[in-house]
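quick one
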Amino acid sequence: MNRFSAAILCLLTLAIGSAVWSQDAASKTAVVPGEAANEGSNDPTADYPQGELGEMVRLGETLVKETSSHPMTQPLVGNPLNCTSCHLDAGRHPKAASFVGVAAAYPAYSPRESAVITLEERIAHCFLRSQNGSRPAPGGKVSVAIAAYITWVSRRTPIDMNPIAPLGPNRLKLLDADAIKPDIARGETLYGDRCADCHLADGSGSDEGPPLWGERSFNDGAGLSKVFKMASWLKVAMPPDDADLTEQEAFDIAAFVNSHPRPEFRPERNDPQ
Ligand code: HEC
Ligand code: HEC
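structure w/ heme C:
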């Protein structure tokens, strides 16, 4: 080894040494992106990201659970539903329109809009239709916080954009509408037996369950206003904790529920505000 390469080696050792040291120091003080805040704690929310991102995710979770009452979202919705009235368990239910993995599917192609849409745009559609409300400002705090929450529950899902529909990997499993002929009269009887205790005989809702039709329900542009989508959701979601309807029963009840009037989807509310 000549003096020149010895000097290089010496410098290199120093450089690597100090890099290791500074990395070590950094990991003790700095927030590492994506790193859990309190790993090992019993608090189910302990792995929110640290710092402002964590605050945003937390706000998003609050907004999806308290959509109809929170001061930031209440003015944007036209019914007493929350996102989690349908996206059960704060969107973490594995089957009932799960939010888990959704963020990995966007941007996605939407046949309804004939356009490639972002996750924020997809969120706006549920405000306009399922919440019978109006669009949160794109890039505004409501939209970003909810997107942050959905992205958080989607982390570690491999990115896999969806060229066919704006739906994630755990999308609602749709039942085959061609295979089953719904019977509204049978649905009415089943509704009285299995649903009316909470949602009331006239579908107007109670403290035990939100409205299912009428002025305070989702509008006729919402996914659940289609009998086969409502049946598919009921099959995995209702009654709560005991979703045991047969496919035929789910179609009968869905047809009965959707035989009633509900608000009309008004696309003019689409205008960003
Ligand atoms: C009345 C029930 C209902 C309410 C309330 C509702 N949604 Fe949805 N949402 C659905 C259904 C059903 C689907 C699945 C639609 C489909 O399969 O076409 C869906 C789909 C979505 C998707 C796309 C899921 C995916 O797999 O890509 C997002 C994102 C979403 N909703 C967000 C929200 C947010 C945010 C709110 C509250 C502001 C909300 N939804 C309120 C019923 C609802
Ligand atoms: C024990 C009370 C209870 C029973 C019984 C029940 N539900 Fe629900 N339902 C709820 C609650 C509570 C929610 C909102 C979910 C949440 O916030 O976690 C809900 C949500 C819904 C929703 C989506 C939100 C909306 O209001 O549009 C539909 C649709 C629905 N139920 C239909 C039914 C049908 C049909 C039956 C009968 C097969 C039924 N439910 C039985 C309590 C009940």
